[in-house]
Specification:
The protein is mostly beta strands and about 130 residues long. The chain is about 5% helix and about 45% strand. It contains one helix and twelve strands; from the N terminus they run ββββββββββββα. The protein has a five-stranded antiparallel beta sheet with strand order 1-9-6-11-4, with no helix packed on it. It has a five-stranded antiparallel beta sheet with strand order 8-7-10-5-12. Strands 2-3 form a two-stranded antiparallel ribbon. β7 (about 65-70) and β8 (about 75-80) form a beta hairpin. Bound molecules: thymidine-5'-diphosphate. Thymidine-5'-diphosphate (TYD) binds near residues 35, 46, 49 and 114.
Length: about 130
Amino acid sequence: MTGKIINLPKITDPRGNLSVIEEFAHIPFEIKRTYLIYDVPGGQARGGHAFKNQCEFIVSLSGSFDVHLDDGNHNKVYSLNRSYYGLYVPFMIWRRMKNFSTNALCLVLSSSVYDPDDYLRDYSLFLEITGSIS
Ligand code: TYD
């Protein structure tokens, strides 16, 4: 599995809609960290790594962008452009975020605090670990 789209509760209201993300209820992990990606210049990409242990949930709060996921055997591209769903990314998935629209605002919820040692930035090593090459 590369990733999974999770639909969030959407409480529609004439005053404006409301969506909620609660740990374990809507996403399958405890939230240890939240970070935002924004002001991405046209044509730039983020990511380009996997995490050894942490998993994440990615939501487009505004605008749109594409998340390219790769489990070592399968690739899939997810276009995120609404606040009422997000992309669950398990650990050991190579991910790259591209095609950010103007004013795209990306919310990432993570199961871990920031740990530079949890990053896997060498794609060949990633393929070795995931067993895709002998
Ligand atoms: P990085 O995760 O490599 O960005 P991306 O994968 O989106 O391209 O992080 C970029 C920089 O920001 C890096 O120097 C570490 C820092 N950073 C933190 O200090 N804390 C964090 O929670 C994150 C995600 C990054």
